[in-house]
């Protein structure tokens, strides 16, 4: 394994050197790397990588793959290692399943874009196939939802434990200017989280322009914070303890990308997301329409979904399900009253802060909400799995029955209001919303039980909040 990792690291170094030369040799600045056609480009900004792609499906896919080839190589190296460690099955097993289940349920436009990503990366020297790009796009659904249903009978029961993301959306009397404010931070295991430092500006030939947080090689956001040129402001938190899945349906990543690109209002978003749904990546979606000031909570399970709208109120998101049918019939161990858990504790704390700041909620206030580390169970500041700015890696006794000190937690913060959405912009911070530093080497020396992550676990230093726009250039 070490020899293989050395080979990947060496290839990445060569590719990075190649891309620097390409950038300097093009019409771009030394800090900006352009695709061969001159339409796509990338640059770095305070912890984020900015990617612009445009045009027809294959064209924009090729730009994406070519510009992100080193990172796509690293993604595949990491996923192959982690998938086998976490499931006991080789990554190729999941790639075969994805290729069997999903292509017939995905429009040709998006299959073509994924083929472009693979071939663009190949052109830049990364050996990656269409099947690997498809599998990476469906990674969460394959490993978290489909896989538990096909294991032996003794292990067949599903229980998706996520506790991943805190979010809010507010409008009307609750916000400073009466418009929509949307905030979100993402929680992911840190060995994968570092891939999601990508802010992608996707300008397709048809449909809406999309500006989203994502990872190299993905069509959708996956962390799910995005804005579209139709004025839709979109975020979600994954429903915890969800236990339903139906194979051979449309994968979640395709439905979101399709909805982002082609929905012009809240109802169209729900309609596209509900078409041929699988239960994979079940979420509580928080969506606002900057054109009207209306916001929506759209909870989507497998058999059930629920839509609630308002133009004067708020919704909180913390991996919970408010709909009693989804919570009781499609989830297990999801008790909204048990504030010892991260889900219920945050679903108490977020409304407390929104009520406290009623009439004053703005992007600045939103940053404070996303950075909050008050534990409602212990009734004191206590960064842990129960706080909005999740700090799982400092929690010595996460409830219930979870491993202590897991290297996971909030590793970003994003806010926007309606005016920013209309201008296709957002304000984002890479790393903990509160600025807390995570040092991988120190963590691994203090917690040797996670030694298997050495070489894959990355540090998260402190960065600044920055306003970034679709169409920005370094």
UniProtKB/TrEMBL annotation:
Task: Tell me any Pfam family this protein matches.
Answer: Phospholip_B
Any coiled-coil ranges, and where? Answer: none
Alphabetized, the UniProt keywords read: Glycoprotein, Hydrolase, Lipid degradation, Lipid metabolism, Signal
Q: Which InterPro entries match?
A: C45_proenzyme-like, DCD1A/B-like, PLipase_B-like
User: Would you indicate the residue range of the signal peptide?
Assistant: none
Q: Which GO terms describe its biological process?
A: lipid catabolic process
Q: Which NCBIfam families match?
A: C45_proenzyme (NF040521)
Under the heading PANTHER family, the entry gives: PROTEIN DCD1B
Q: What is this protein called?
A: Peptidase C45
């Amino acid at each position: 394994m070490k020899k293989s990792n050395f080979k990947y690291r060496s290839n990445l170094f060569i590719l990075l050197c190649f891309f620097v030369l390409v950038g300097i040799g093009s019409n771009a600045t030394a800090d900006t790397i352009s695709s061969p056609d001159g339409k796509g480009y990338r640059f770095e900004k305070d912890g984020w990588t900015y990617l612009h792609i445009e045009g027809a499906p294959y064209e924009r896919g090729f730009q994406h793959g070519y510009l992100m080839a080193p990172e796509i190589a690293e993604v595949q190296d990491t996923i192959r290692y982690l998938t086998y460690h976490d499931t006991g099955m080789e990554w190729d097993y999941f790639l075969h399943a994805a290729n069997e289940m999903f292509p017939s349920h995905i429009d040709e436009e998006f299959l073509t874009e994924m083929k472009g990503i693979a071939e663009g990366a190949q052109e830049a020297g990364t050996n990656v196939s269409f099947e690997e790009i498809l599998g990476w796009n469906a990674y969460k659904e394959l490993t978290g939802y489909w896989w538990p249903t096909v294991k032996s009978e003794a292990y067949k029961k599903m229980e998706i434990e996520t506790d991943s993301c805190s979010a809010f959306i507010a409008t009307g009397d609750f916000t400073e200017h009466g418009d929509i404010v949307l905030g979100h931070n993402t929680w992911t295991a840190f060995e994968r989280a570092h891939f999601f430092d990508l802010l992608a500006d996707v300008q397709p030939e048809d449909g809406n322009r999309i500006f989203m947080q994502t990872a190299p090689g993905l069509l959708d956001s996956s962390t799910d914070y995005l804005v579209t040129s139709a004025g839709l402001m979109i975020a979600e938190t994954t429903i915890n303890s969800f236990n339903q899945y139906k194979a051979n349906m449309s994968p979640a990543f395709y439905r979101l990308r399709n909805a982002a690109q082609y929905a012009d209002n809240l109802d169209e978003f729900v309609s596209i997301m509900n078409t041929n749904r699988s239960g994979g990546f079940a979420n509580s979606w928080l969506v606002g329409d900057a054109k009207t000031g209306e916001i929506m909570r759209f909870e989507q399970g497998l058999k059930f979904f629920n839509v609630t709208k308002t133009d004067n109120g708020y919704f909180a998101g913390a991996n919970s399900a408010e709909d009693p049918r989804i919570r009781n019939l499609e989830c297990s161990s999801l008790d909204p009253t048990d504030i010892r858990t991260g889900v219920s504790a945050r679903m108490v704390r977020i409304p407390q802060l929104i009520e406290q700041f009623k009439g004053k909620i703005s992007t600045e206030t939103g940053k404070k909400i996303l950075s909050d580390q008050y534990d409602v169970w212990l009734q004191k500041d206590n960064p842990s799995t129960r706080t909005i700015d999740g700090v799982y890696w400092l929690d010595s006794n996460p409830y219930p029955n979870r491993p202590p000190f897991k290297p996971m937690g909030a590793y970003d913060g994003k806010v926007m209001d309606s005016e920013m959405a209309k201008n296709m912009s957002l304000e984002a911070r890479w790393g903990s919303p509160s600025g807390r530093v995570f040092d991988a080497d120190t963590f691994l020396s203090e917690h040797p039980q996670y030694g298997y992550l050495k070489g894959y676990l990355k540090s998260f230093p402190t960065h600044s909040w920055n306003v970034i726009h679709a169409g920005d250039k370094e």
